Every structure is written in C-alpha cells, then in structure tokens.
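User: quick one - fold this with adenine bound?
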Amino acid sequence: MKIKILTLFPQLIDSIKYSIIGRAMDNGSLIIQAVDIRQFSTNKHKKCDDVPYGGGAGMLMTVQPIYDCIQYLDPSRQSKRIFLTPTGKKFDDKMARELADNDLIILCGHYEGVDQRAIDLCIDECISIGDYILTGGELAALVVVDAVCRFCSGVLGSQQSHEQDSFANGLLEYPQYTRPQEFRGHFVPDVLLNGNHAEIKKWQLEQSLLLTSRDRPDLLKDSYED
Ligand code: ADE
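Assistant: Sure. Structure tokens for the protein plus adenine:
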C-alpha cells in the first residue's frame, strides 16, 4: 500500500517510521511518504496561505500549491484522496478497513483551513478524527494512517491479529494479563490460569460485554440497530 501525506510541515510526519509501521515500511509492505506542499507553490516566496475573502480570522491555505501537488502525484486519479478536517465524516474502525483497500493521498490542513476549491477539485472524502479542533491535520493523518495500516497485509505479524481487537466484534476488548501472577497484592484472575479454553472464552466475552455496557453503551445500541 502506498500513502502520500501532503503537508506544510513534513517533519511532523516523521514519527510514523517507528515500531510496527516502521517495520512494515522496511520490509516493503508499506510505502509512506511525506510531501512538502510548499515545493509546489509558484509564489516567489513559496507562500501557501492568504487571507479569506469576506473577512474572518486567520489565514487559509491557497488552492494552487495543493492542486499542482496532487496533479503531479496522481495525474490519473488512481489514489483515494482524503482531506483531514474537523468538519469531515467521523473516522472509525469500519472506515479504516475500507481505506486499507486503496492507495491514499492525505491532505493535511493548517491555519484556519483550505480554499474550498482545493477540496472541490482534488478531494474524494473529508474525514475528522473527532469532535475537537487540532492546530493542523498532521496529527490526525498519523492517527488515520496508523489505524488503516494495521489492516494491510504484512503489517501485523501472526502474533498481532486485528481480529481480536476492540471493535472487531462490535465490543470493547476484554482485560488482559501477563507475568507476574501477583503484583502488589493484585492477582491475575484464576480463570485465566486453569487452561480451560471454553471457560476462558466465556469469561472474556462477559468482560467485553461488561466493559462495553459500562464505557461505550452506544456500541451495543448500534449493534441492535444493524
Ligand atoms: N484538523 C483539525 N482538527 C481535526 C480533526 N478533529 N480531525 C481531522 N483533522 C483535523
């Protein structure tokens, strides 16, 4: 899978190249590239922002560098083009799975937003990672890329399956324990030590249901409505 992240601050994307995603980049399963939109500005000072028509606070990213950058990278519209914005569709696990079937171009906004024509001309889908405002789309891009890449083959090893994740079965994941059996008077639940796999599975499902009804009752409601 190939992902290009378009930003005015490519250094903010550097942290993607560590740990699990970094290994998948090293073994060739993933190609992730930060692209500096500023390189594409035709302005002699490489300016990429300007004041909004009609007034209003702050600056907007201008359309020209974004348009030329995306045209250069994807002239025949092979990739799915995403813009990260708090006004986009709310990102979730299902969307992450679906996006993993495409090569992606991800545009990060900065300042007060981008000229609407950049969205109209270049973008397939606007996505928000939640109901809060970040100073730019870069951290949102890292969240989306990380969640999407987990569904690409060659990223998670056989030890790390996404099939058991929270949300995979519509419930939050049950609590897990590792050595030691006792830590400061707190014990691993007996059921996990007895080797009875049917009992363990039953306990895990009960815990998932308890946690989901306590912390995310909306997920149970969603599954009734499906
Ligand atoms: N840019 C700023 N805030 C954002 C958010 N919540 N989601 C996606 N992109 C953003």
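One thing worth noting: The two ends are 31 Å apart (CA to CA).
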